[in-house]
Specification:
The complex is a heterotrimer of chains A (159), B (99) and C (616). With 159 residues, chain A is mainly α. Chain A is 75% helix and 0% strand. With 99 residues, chain B is mainly alpha-helical. The longest helix of chain C is centred in the last third of the chain and has 49 residues. A two-stranded antiparallel sheet of chain C has the order 1-2. The chains are: A mainly alpha (159), B mainly alpha (99), C mainly alpha (616). At the A-B interface, helix 1, helix 2, helix 3, helix 4 and helix 5 of A face helix 1, helix 2 and helix 3 of B.
């Protein structure tokens, strides 16, 4: 049962990934990406990480992709001419990377662990004990990102 | 659903995302492909964490997602800036640094 | 040793003043006066030096350490005054003085600036030659040797507006330079084994057996090469006939009495070393005989009086070298001294003739005995000395040489030299009879030269006649030298002077018969032997061999080297440039400003890294 779900989700993920890179209209690409992200969230659930699945959907799909859509509206979604530039070298390189990674993945010791991975409480505890400093730094980073994005994207005021 | 299969899937998504990054001409198309690659990496980390029972993997991915959010925000701001200044978001046109 | 230093100081001071004070030099007559004063001082000092050495009966050496060295021998500068060098110094200074006085009149038509330049060169030459004579080690000899070569170059090419003069000066310089390479190598070889340049030390080492074998042979051979160049031994004789482009007094000084004698002088100096290297001595002898013979043959067909005298000089130098090679340095030295007198005399007399009729061609002269009796008499004295007719100085010295050759066990060489003596008498008789006797008058109004030119002639003529009396002096000079074990005065066996006189007699008789009495017509003889005459006129094609060698070897090698430089060396550089541009072009394509190109590189790096990590 588990495996079936896995294969289905994996298939969706892969199909959506392909769609992201091949779609002619970028709106299509955005929607394909959201599908891929949701599929991944599903996989997280299978992997006993429900918090992560929720965060994924909330932040990624909800937040990020909405931003992208707004940006697309402003910047224009159509690529004049071809979608791709020199697809063959790119395909070759991606294939090489895939082969290398896959081969090394198969070389890992096989394991399949099924016990419950986490609960939100455990994650929270970990976050505020061992990983407190990165957590604080992350908030600083987000602050910086906000300011940066604002600064970069505002309209130039006539002096 | 073994670790190996999971990792292979993640590698496949990563490679597909890489293709998009290398081949896409539209800037936002590239950003989307980057998102795919991030996603694949997160999947890989969670898979390994799951196979070893490490909670730290989940925390790591959480951080990763947060950072990605920040990165996308800034990246999009840049794309908007480029569309205003260079009047184009096609990466081929944004090659002032050539030579 | 103040006298020795004065010998050098006189001409050196004159030269120094004349070089650094152009107004003095360009004034003409005052420059000449200064130069003559310099050489006059030199002569007086040389005579004083000679007297002192004769009285002492032993050499006198002045040594100054020039560059003291803690490891190995120091470099010293020294003056060596012994019987040989002191007498040679007197000879050089004396002839130089006569020539400079003669030049007052001979060169009087020159512009003052050129006149001054002429005397400046004369002072330089005198200084260099005297320095060579009085040198106490091989290195110093070499330095002054080169200076002498420079002086010769400057004087031969004095009339530099004449292209032939410039070429002749260069030819002289190059040919002697070729020999000088051998000289330098010889010096270094000897030094490398003996650790010294000084003559006395070298002789001691050779005598004690420390300096021996191949090293000594190579060293002496090298030094002989230098002597070959300067003393015009075959095949390095080619420069001497051409050097006649210079003024006649220069020819008298340099190419009769002093510079060409330097080679013989050097060989006389190192005679003790030569005694230890019989192979080199044999070579010296053989080449000397060959030179004497060939040069005499070439003189037979010449019609330029100076060229005839030049070949004669070469021939007589061959005689001297033959004596050295046969083991008798004293005979060679004696002949050197007498030859200096009578050859200088002949050249100066020829100069008077040329000055009178404005041509060098003897067939354009004639009956000059009538209008120039004093010159003719002097020339006759010189001619008799050259032919070796008793009782001239030439008779005694030539007989010494012939006796030495015979005593050295070289019957064939002796025979050749006797024949050469006969040829010598013939060719100089020919000049005498054609130019000074003969049926037809010379064109123009020739007349006797002024006193400045006549006086040296008379002085030399007297010496040419009476200097035979010096014969017993020579061994005493050698006894007072740094190599006193040398050479006793042997009276030649009667055979030698007899044959010599007969040969001379035949030569003179033939000349008389052909050119004066017209018993036979020399032109017919010339025609009959046409091919041989051509060979002689072309100087045995030695010049052509040199030229061919130069053109072929030297120019071909230069062309080859040039080709290598242009195509291979430059080609390599150009290839590197081309490759650089090629790669640069390719690399520039990578910098296309697009970010994805960089990502390709990153992805590639990733692949490599993972592969490397997992390939372990």
């Amino acid at each position: 049962m588990r495996d079936l779900a896995f294969f289905g989700l994996a298939a969706c993920l892969l199909a959506a990934a392909v769609a992201v890179v091949t779609a002619k209209s970028l709106f299509r690409a955005v929607f394909a990406l959201s599908a891929a992200l949701v599929a991944t969230a599903g996989l997280y659930l299978l992997l006993s990480a429900p918090l992560l699945a929720a965060v994924q959907i909330l932040l990624y799909t909800g937040g990020v992709l909405t931003l992208v859509v707004f940006a697309l509206v402003v910047a224009g979604a159509n690529t004049e001419g071809a979608r791709w530039r020199q697809p063959l070298p790119a395909a070759f390189m991606s294939l090489a990377v895939f082969v290398v990674l896959a081969v090394s993945a198969r070389a890992l010791p096989a394991a399949s662990h099924v016990s419950g991975l986490e609960s939100g409480k455990d994650v929270g505890l970990l976050l505020f004990s061992d990983y407190l400093v990165p957590f604080e730094l992350l908030s600083v980073l987000l602050l910086g990102a906000v300011f940066g994005a604002l600064l970069l994207a505002r309209k130039d005021r006539p002096e | 659903m073994t670790l190996a299969t999971l990792l292979v899937v993640a590698a496949a998504v990563f490679a597909i995302g890489l293709f998009g990054v290398l081949a896409r001409r539209h800037a936002i198309g590239v950003l989307l492909s980057i998102e795919l690659m991030f996603n694949a990496v997160n999947l890989a980390i969670v898979s390994i964490a799951w196979s070893r029972g490490l909670l730290a993997g989940v925390v790591l991915v959480l951080f990763g997602i947060a950072i990605t959010v920040a990165e996308i925000a800034v990246g999009l701001a840049l794309v908007l800036l480029a569309s205003r200044v260079a009047k184009s978001v096609i990466l081929d046109d944004l090659s002032e640094l050539k030579g | 040793m103040t006298d020795a230093l004065l010998v050098l100081a006189g001409p050196l001071a004159a030269f120094a003043l004349l070089s650094v004070l152009p107004p003095l030099r360009r004034s003409g007559k005052p420059a000449a006066a200064l130069s003559i004063a310099g050489i006059g001082v030199s002569l007086l000092a040389a005579v004083a030096l000679f007297a002192r050495i004769r009285a002492a009966g032993a050499p006198s050496i002045l040594e100054i350490v020039w560059a003291p060295m803690t490891t190995g021998p120091s470099i010293t500068f020294g003056l060596l005054a012994d019987g040989i060098s002191a007498s040679m110094a007197v000879l050089v200074a004396f002839v130089a003085l006569l020539v400079q006085v003669y030049s007052l009149s001979y060169m009087s038509e020159e512009k003052p600036a050129a006149f001054g330049r002429y005397y400046t060169y004369h002072s330089l030459f005198a200084f260099a030659m005297l320095g060579l004579v009085l040198a106490h080690n091989l290195l110093q000899t070499y330095v002054f040797w080169e200076l002498v070569g420079l002086g010769s170059y400057l004087l031969i090419g004095f009339w530099f507006e004449k292209p032939a003069a410039g070429r002749a000066a260069l030819k002289a310089f190059w040919t002697t330079r070729l020999g000088d390479v051998g000289f330098a190598i010889g010096i270094v070889v000897l030094w490398s084994s003996a650790g010294t340049f000084t003559f006395t030390e070298l002789f001691a080492k050779a005598d004690s057996g420390l300096l021996t074998g191949t090293v000594l042979t190579l060293g002496v051979a090298g030094i002989y090469l230098g002597a070959m160049g300067k003393s015009a031994q075959f095949p390095f004789h080619i420069w001497l006939p051409d050097a006649m482009e210079g003024p006649t007094p220069v020819s008298a000084l340099i190419h009769a009495a002093t510079m060409v004698a330097a080679g013989v002088y050097l060989m006389v100096r190192i005679a003790p070393l030569l005694a230890h290297t019989p192979q080199v001595a044999t070579v010296v002898f053989s080449i000397g005989v060959l030179t004497a013979f060939l040069a005499a043959t070439m003189a037979l067909v010449e019609s330029d009086i100076k060229r005839i005298l030049a070949f004669s000089t070469v021939s007589q130098l061959g005689f001297m070298m033959a004596a050295v090679g046969a083991g008798s340095a004293s005979a060679a030295y004696f002949h050197l001294v007498t030859h200096a007198f009578f050859k200088a005399l002949l050249f100066l007399a020829a100069g008077s003739l040329i000055h009178a009729v404005h041509t060098n061609d003897i067939f354009k002269m004639g009956r000059l005995a009538r209008v120039m009796p004093v010159t003719t008499a002097c020339f006759a004295a010189g001619a008799l000395a050259l032919s070796g007719v008793i009782p001239t100085a030439g008779f005694f010295s030539k007989d010494e040489v012939l006796a030495a050759v015979l005593a050295g066990g070289h019957p064939v060489g002796f025979a050749i030299l006797v024949v050469t003596a006969g040829m010598t008498a013939f060719y100089i008789g020919r000049v005498f009879f054609v130019a000074m006797m003969g049926p037809t008058n010379a064109p123009g109004h020739p007349h006797e030269p002024p006193a400045a030119m006549k006086t040296p002639l008379i002085v030399l003529a007297v010496l040419a006649l009476v200097a035979g009396a010096l014969a017993p002096l020579i061994p005493r000079l050698f006894a007072a030298s740094i190599a006193p074990q040398a050479l006793a005065f042997e009276h030649a066996p009667f055979l030698v002077p007899a044959l010599g006189t007969i040969a001379a007699g035949i030569g003179i008789a033939l000349a008389l018969a052909g050119y004066q009495l017209r018993v036979f017509d020399p032109a017919n003889v010339r025609r009959a032997f046409r091919p041989l005459v051509t060979v002689l006129e072309r100087r045995w094609y030695v010049d052509d061999v040199f030229e061919f060698g130069y053109r072929f070897a030297y120019l071909k090698i230069s062309n080859a080297v040039g080709w290598v430089d242009r195509y291979i060396v430059d080609g390599l550089v150009n290839a590197v440039t081309w490759a650089t541009w090629l790669f640069a072009g390719r690399l520039t394509a990578m910098q296309n400003g697009r970010v994805q190109s960089a990502l390709y590189a990153t992805a590639f790096g990733l692949v490599v890294l993972v592969w490397l990590a997992w390939a372990q």
